[in-house]
Amino acid sequence: MKKRHLRKIDPKGISVIQNNNEVQQVSVSESEFQRMRMFHQIYVNKTFESFYLVQYNLFKNLYIQDHLPNISVNNKTKRWNENLPLIPVIRLDFSLLTSDKRSEMLEKNLIQVLQSIEKQYGIDIVNDNVKSVTFKLIKLLADDNENKYRQVVILIDKYDSLLLNVIGIMKKSTKLQITTQRTKDFFEVIKALQSKVKFLFITGIIMFIHLDLFSGLNNLKDVTLSNKLSRVYSFTSDEITKVFEDKLLNLCKSNHYNNIQDVMNKFQKKYNGYF
Predict the structure, then answer these.
(1) Record's superkingdom (predicted)?
(2) For residue 119, what are the contacts with CB-CB under 8 A and spacing of at least 6?
């Protein structure tokens, strides 16, 4: 496994491949990104979350601690370290929201998730629509006196899950239209408050109605095919052969492969070229 989820785990029997140097390159650029493929996306967002919450100890012995990046605090450049103030993080997993039942359930679920984030930061917002709750959450967190950055970080896992859940349910597109509108409501608020967002990272597996949902987020970059960041989302052949050499040799013997490369070719065929 890659040491990107950053949980404290029993190291016995676990092989670690760390690639948070590439994650560092993204996080310190302070921009907006959209990752369209699903590979390891949860771990990437968890790493971003831990970085911006300054959970310094979770990065012990990892690349980021050995190569501390710069980060802007009140327009002053500082080295990222354990004494920096945290940046409020709004992290959502859209796959956990209900969109294939009554239309009002989606809005209710999204509001409940946003309100649970509010409680984590000790605030309480009572509103009856997604736009209002999202707007006030971002504003209150960004404008809080203890927030030295005057901005927030927004991380969204599987943005397209809501839309995929309703495709094909009905011949008429009523549910799809409603789901699309609720999702757009959320992103429209982010668009309106872009100056309050220090970093935005969105993951998904397809570019479903891509332009319609994200139009207006001017700085959103699709990094699906970025060569610089490709190692963030998967393992390279070199990493696998180096870390798992003994196990690959055992596979060669037990399955009568000629060499490790034969095993790697089998993996690539099975996983469509990805690790």
Answers:
(1) Eukaryota
(2) none
